[in-house]
User: Fold this.
Amino acid sequence: MNLTLNVMAKNALVYYQDHLAGYLIETDEGYTFVYDKEYLKSKEAMPVSLTLPLQHDAYESKALFSFFDGLIPEGWLLNVGQKYWKLKGNDRFELLVTLCRDTIGAVSILPEEGVADV
Assistant:
C-alpha cells in the first residue's frame, strides 16, 4: 500500500515505546491510522491499542479514534495546556499532538511536518 498524504492533511507520528509504530492523519474527511511497514515486520511489534490490532490496511474514521482521544489529558492539565499553547478545546488532533508527546503509557504522539509517503 502506498498512501500519499496531501498537503492539507495534518500528520502525526505514533510511537510504541521507542519504536515508530505508525501514522495518524487528519484530513477534511476524518482520520486515518496506518501501521508503519517496518514496524509490522518487527518481531517486537505490538498493537498500539487492542482496538487497533496489527494489520497492513489503514484504519479510517470520521471521528478521532477513541484510543487516541483518550490520551488527551482532562481537567486542570488540559486547561494548562490550552492556556500555555493557546489551543482550541475542540481541535482534538492539535491537543493530541501537542499534549501527548510524553504520555504515562507506552504510546507517544509527535507532530510530523510536511508531506510524507506511507
